[in-house]
Amino acid sequence: LSKSVPLFKAMDLDHIGALGQSLGGEIVANIAHAHPNWFQAAATLDAGIEKNDDTLNKFSIPFMREISANRSSE
C-alpha cells in the first residue's frame, strides 16, 4: 500500500506521532496503550475527564495531556 498510494509515499512511517481532541484524544491514548510501538509520541487536548481514562495511565512514549480550561467534577 505504501508504494501505491501517494499519501503514504509522503509519510515517514518510522516517525509517527498522534494528536487527538476530546474523544479523539481518548482513542489516541487507547491505541498508544494497546500498541506501544506504533508511535514515537502522542498528545491529547481536552481528554481524560473520567478517572479510569487511558490518558491518565503511564505511557512508554512521550505523552502530553493538555486541558484547555479548568474543569471541576462538581
> Major sheet, described briefly?
3 strands, parallel
User: Strand fraction band?
Assistant: 15-25%
Strand tally is 3
Count up the helices: 2
The helicity comes to 10-25%
What string, H for helix and E for strand, traces the elements in order? HEHEE
Strand order of the largest sheet: 1-2-3
User: Structural class from helices and strands?
Assistant: alpha/beta
Computed over alpha carbons, the radius of gyration is 14 Å
> What is the global morphology?
elongated
The mean pLDDT is 76
Cα end-to-end separation: 49 Å
Low-pLDDT segments: none
Task: Describe, in plain words, how this protein is organized in 3D.
This protein has 74 residues and is α/β, with parallel strands linked by helices. Strands 1-2-3 form a 3-stranded parallel sheet, covered by helices on one side. 16% of the residues are buried.
Write the layout of secondary structure elements.
Layout (H helix, E strand, L loop, with lengths): L5 H5 L6 E5 L1 H12 L6 E5 L17 E4 L8
Parallel strand pairs: 1-2, 2-3
Explain briefly what this protein structure is.
The chain is of the alpha/beta class and 74 residues long.
Features of the shown structure:
74 residues, alpha/beta
